[in-house]
Amino acid sequence: MRKKPTRKRGDRYRLFRIVLLAGLLMTLALIFLVSTLGSQNFGPLHKLMLEAVGPLQRAVTMGSTYVETFKSEYIDILQDSLRLREENKRLIQQLQENENILNKSREAMATNASLRKLLEFKNSLDQQQVVAATIVGKDPSAMFRSVIIDRGSNSGLSKGNPVVNSDGVVGQVFAVTPNYAKVLLAIAPSSAIDVLLQKSRVRGILKGDGTLTYRLEYILKTAEVEEGDHVVTAGYGGIFPTGLQVGVVSKIIRKPRGMFHEIEVTPSVDYQKLENLLILQQPQFGEIKQMEQH
Predict the structure, then answer these.
(1) Average of per-residue pLDDT across 248-256
(2) Selection from 229, 152, 240, 234 nearest residue 195 by Cα
(3) Which of 113, 163, 194, 251 would be a feasible disulfide site paired with 264, CB 3.0-4.6 Å?
(4) Is the dihedral of CA 27, 31, 32, 36 positive or negative?
């Protein structure tokens, strides 16, 4: 029964010592903190902490600076990219507009040159009554090559009118409505035109074969003919005027049998680029000449 008070006094004394020690440590820490903060000289502990924390703080500062710099540069690059993209779109649009203007200018110049050439040729035919026309349609058939023009009987056209352009003979009108007409091209298999070899004045019949070349038939083997000879209209029958360009002899096949040469003629007219035509009107017109294919 007497041991209990002694134990309680021992516990209280131990607690008092702990509290006293803690208070002492806090007091010393406070004194050290106040003396350190109040003094401009670093103490050994402060220096030790600074040495330990300095590299870490430097790394954090450098990392933060790098992140800010990268962020700023990234934003600048992104803004520049957006500006360049918009500028690129604007330049592409401007380039397309300039190309369209250039193409229109080229087309206008080409059309003007073609029409000027056609007008000069028309003036050279002042003895003829001439109607200008434009092609508005084409027959894709190889066996019956023809084009549709924007002039018809209301413009004075009739069946059999010869059709030309500044390069030479194109064909003949073979169907007419009030406002349109169909032109049989000279390269059509059903077309045949009286022609002359310009140099030798030998007469023959020029036929189409459905391709972009002619066949010159009924030229005797005794006739003088060479590659490069010009072929012109003969003027027989009152259809085509004499001397219109038709083409150039491009190939001569001299066979041992038969009376006539086989002659290929390259047209003076570019049938793949036909646009504007002239229709010649004369007092008398023959029908389109059609002959059997030999």
Answers:
(1) 88
(2) 234
(3) 251
(4) positive
